[in-house]
Structure formats: structure tokens, C-alpha cells
């Protein structure tokens, strides 16, 4: 192989990220063809992507098998040359829209079939296989979480070469497909580490990560889990919504719950991503249900107490012609909504409790802006049931 020529083609024809991600290198380019070396020339997903890429410029893709060692040698040579030319570029978090769109795929994708156009290999045999997504339970309302295309299994030494978004995708693919229980983001003074726990045994995945890459990857994960990208500090750590997030998905026909917890460390924010399946997920959800139930009861008791105080103050006010309690229509409307939710919870546990009931009258329009004590009495009676 002409190494210098290949490195030039990586700059001009096929970006380094694509070469690394799909384990491919450009060997030769002619006006109507591009010759590629591939570690896995029968990788239909990679071929589909490459075919679309070069179809835009009117070139046919020809493939040739290369060894893993040859691919790694070219990747290392490219990085060495890049480091000699300029200082290491800063890592910045790119847009996460593409990754969130992967996460937000619904059941409609479950029956979609990807059929790549034929791509000629070195023996002039077209690739005709198709990659099909298996359907999931049509009665399931959970989101279908797929990593398409599925990233190839990269050696640990090469993961650090990926940009933050691709590094996160590779980590998620490894976590979800390998039975890993936890992923730890641990920060030290001058570097970071990503460690995973499998069967209770901690094993290092990436050690001595540059802090900019470490933070950018963690930021990607936080955004993927719908957390604020702003780093967690000692002050913000007191706000639970800013440091914890749960998301449940269907992954390969299995229910999976991802639980992210971000916390301040000695040198900045750190995080733990927990993967729950089966009985462990059921136990966690039962525990959360109990916590939410207790929180709901506490809120209901507080609301009842406040309405009693308002009722007492309203009935014993010095001047009966005082200002009307304008919040009462909204409160009654809220109570109507709560009753609808409770009825749905009691009679149809599997119903969609988030859908508004169109048959429920809106009391905002039915209650006067100058409510009498009877309105407060009615609200009090409803809260005392």
C-alpha cells in the first residue's frame, strides 16, 4: 500500500472519522470509481453508507479486504502526521440531534427494511444482503432504541481517537450489548477515566482521557438523557432534576432502563450510568412508584392544609366584600383533572393517563370570578375524601 497516498486521500476523499468508524481506508480514486480497503467487506451497513456517499459524486465503490493490523497502522500514521502538523485540536461537543433522533425512533422503524444498492467488491460480486430491523410488540408504548448503523467493535486503544459523539455511541453499544451493569465517568485533576462494572467487577475501558474529551463525552451523555449540559456543581447538585434522569427503552426486543446520575467530584462533575434489565428493573420501578406515591400523599396533605387555612381566613375576614379568590377556578380544574387521573388509575392501569379527557367540563368557565364560601367548602370536602 502507498501509505502517503492513502493519507492524502483520507484528507480529501474519505474523512478520518468515517475510516475509523467503518474500518475502511481509501486506496485509489479514478474519475468513475473509488477503491476501498475494508476490514469487513461484507458489512452491509457500512457498504450502504459508503455507496450513498460516493453515489453523490458519480463513483462506483470497489472493495478489497485488508487486515485489522493494516487498518490500525494507517489510522495511527494519520494521527501521528496530524500531531506533527499542528497542536492537538480541542474537543467540543457537536450537535446531539442525530443521536437523540436515534433514541426517539418509534415503532414505525420496527418494520423498516434497509436495502443497500449493489456495491462491487474486488471480485466484482455485488453486495445484495439486506439489513432488517426486527419488529417489537405492537402493543408496547415504549420507544424503540436502536443504534443504526451499529458501530463496529473498536479496540480500546482506538476508542480515544473517536470524537465525543461517536465515542458515546460506541460506549452505549458496548454497554447495551455486553450485559454491562454500570458505566462510571471518573474525573481526576488532569485526566478522566471511563470504567465499567460487569458482574460486580470494575474494569477500565478508557484511562487517562484528556479532560476535554472526557467532559465533551459526558456532556453528550447528559444531553442524550435530557439533562442540562451545564456542569453540575455543589450548589446545583442540590436540585435533583439537574443531576438525575431515567429513560426506559426497547433494545433488541428487551426492556432496558438507563439511569444517569451526575454528581460533583473533587475536580469537577462525574457520573454513573446504570443499566437495569429484568428483575432489577422491576425492583427499581417498584421503589420509584413507592417514592412517587409518598410524595403525592405529602403534596395532597399540604394542599388540604393550605385550603383549610384559606377557608378559615376567608370566612373570618373583617370585610366580606374583600377581593375574590381568583385562584379557585384553576384549583377546581386541577382537582377535576386529578379525579380523572385517579379514575383511570383505579379502573384501567394500562390506559394512557397523560391524555386529557375531552368529556370533562372545564370549570374555569363555569365558576364565577367572585367565588363564595360555598366554593371553598366544596373544594375542602373534595380534599377531605
SSE inventory with pairings:
Layout: H1 3-12, H2 16-22, E1 24-29, E2 33-38, H3 44-55, E3 60-65, H4 68-85, H5 97-103, E4 113-114, E5 120-121, E6 131-132, E7 143-144, H6 156-159, H7 164-177, E8 182-187, E9 191-198, E10 201-210, H8 211-224, E11 244-251, E12 254-264, E13 269-277, H9 278-315, H10 328-347, H11 363-366, H12 373-383
Parallel strand pairs: 2-3, 3-5, 7-11
Antiparallel strand pairs: 1-2, 4-6, 8-9, 8-13, 9-10, 11-12, 12-13
Question: What's the rounded overall pLDDT mean?
Answer: 73
Largest beta sheet: strand ordering: 7-11-12-13-8-9-10
Q: Flag low-confidence runs.
A: 87-140, 349-372
CATH topology of the largest domain: Beta-Lactamase
Shape: elongated
The value of Rg in angstroms is 29 Å
Number of domains: 3
Order of helices and strands: HHEEHEHHEEEEHHEEEHEEEHHHH
Q: Please give the number of β-strands.
A: 13
> Which CATH architecture of the largest domain?
2-Layer Sandwich
Judged by helices, strands and strand pairing, the structural class is: alpha+beta
Ends apart, CA distance between termini = 82 Å
What is the C-level CATH assignment of the largest domain?
A: Alpha Beta
Largest sheet: 7 strands, mixed
Q: What fraction of residues sit in β-strands?
A: 15-25%
Q: How many individual helices?
A: 12
Instruction: Tell me the helix content.
Output: 40-55%
Amino acid at each position: 500500500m502507498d501509505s502517503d497516498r492513502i493519507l492524502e486521500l483520507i484528507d480529501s476523499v474519505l474523512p478520518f472519522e468515517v475510516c475509523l468508524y467503518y474500518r475502511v481506508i481509501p486506496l485509489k480514486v479514478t474519475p468513475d470509481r473509488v477503491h476501498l480497503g475494508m476490514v469487513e467487506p461484507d458489512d452491509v451497513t457500512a457498504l450502504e453508507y459508503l455507496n450513498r456517499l460516493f453515489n453523490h459524486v458519480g463513483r462506483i465503490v470497489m472493495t478489497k479486504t485488508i487486515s485489522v493490523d493494516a487498518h490500525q497502522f494507517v489510522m495511527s500514521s494519520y494521527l501521528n502526521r496530524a500531531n506533527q502538523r499542528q497542536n492537538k485540536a480541542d474537543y467540543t461537543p457537536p450537535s446531539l440531534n442525530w443521536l437523540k433522533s436515534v433514541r426517539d425512533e418509534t415503532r414505525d422503524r420496527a418494520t423498516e427494511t434497509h436495502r443497500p444498492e449493489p456495491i462491487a467488491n474486488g471480485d466484482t460480486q455485488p453486495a445484495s444482503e439486506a439489513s432488517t430491523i426486527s419488529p417489537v410488540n405492537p402493543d408496547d408504548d415504549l420507544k424503540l432504541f436502536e443504534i443504526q448503523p451499529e458501530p463496529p467493535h473498536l479496540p480500546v486503544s482506538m476508542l480515544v481517537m473517536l470524537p465525543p459523539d461517536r465515542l458515546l455511541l460506541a460506549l452505549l453499544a458496548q454497554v447495551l450489548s455486553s450485559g454491562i451493569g454500570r458505566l462510571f465517568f471518573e474525573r481526576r485533576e488532569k485526566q478522566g477515566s471511563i470504567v465499567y462494572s460487569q458482574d460486580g467487577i470494575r474494569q477500565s475501558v478508557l484511562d487517562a482521557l484528556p479532560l476535554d474529551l472526557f467532559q465533551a463525552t459526558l456532556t453528550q451523555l447528559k444531553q442524550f438523557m435530557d439533562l442540562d449540559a451545564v456542569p453540575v456543581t455543589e450548589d446545583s447538585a442540590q436540585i435533583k432534576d439537574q443531576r438525575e434522569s431515567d429513560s426506559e427503552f426497547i433494545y433488541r426486543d428487551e426492556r432496558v432502563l438507563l439511569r444517569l446520575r451526575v454528581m460533583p467530584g473533587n475536580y469537577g462533575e462525574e457520573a454513573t450510568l446504570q443499566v437495569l434489565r429484568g428483575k432489577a428493573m422491576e425492583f427499581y420501578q417498584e421503589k420509584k412508584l413507592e417514592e412517587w406515591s409518598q410524595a403525592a400523599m405529602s403534596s395532597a396533605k399540604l394542599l388540604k392544609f393550605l385550603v383549610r387555612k384559606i377557608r378559615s381566613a376567608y370566612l373570618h375576614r373583617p370585610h366580606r366584600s374583600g377581593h375574590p379568590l381568583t385562584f379557585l377556578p384553576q384549583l377546581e380544574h386541577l382537582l377535576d383533572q386529578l379525579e380523572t387521573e385517579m379514575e383511570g388509575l383505579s379502573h384501567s392501569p394500562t390506559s394512557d393517563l397523560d391524555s386529557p379527557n375531552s368529556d370533562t367540563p372545564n370549570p374555569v368557565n363555569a365558576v364565577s370570578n367572585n367565588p363564595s364560601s360555598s366554593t371553598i367548602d366544596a373544594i375542602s370536602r373534595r380534599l377531605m375524601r
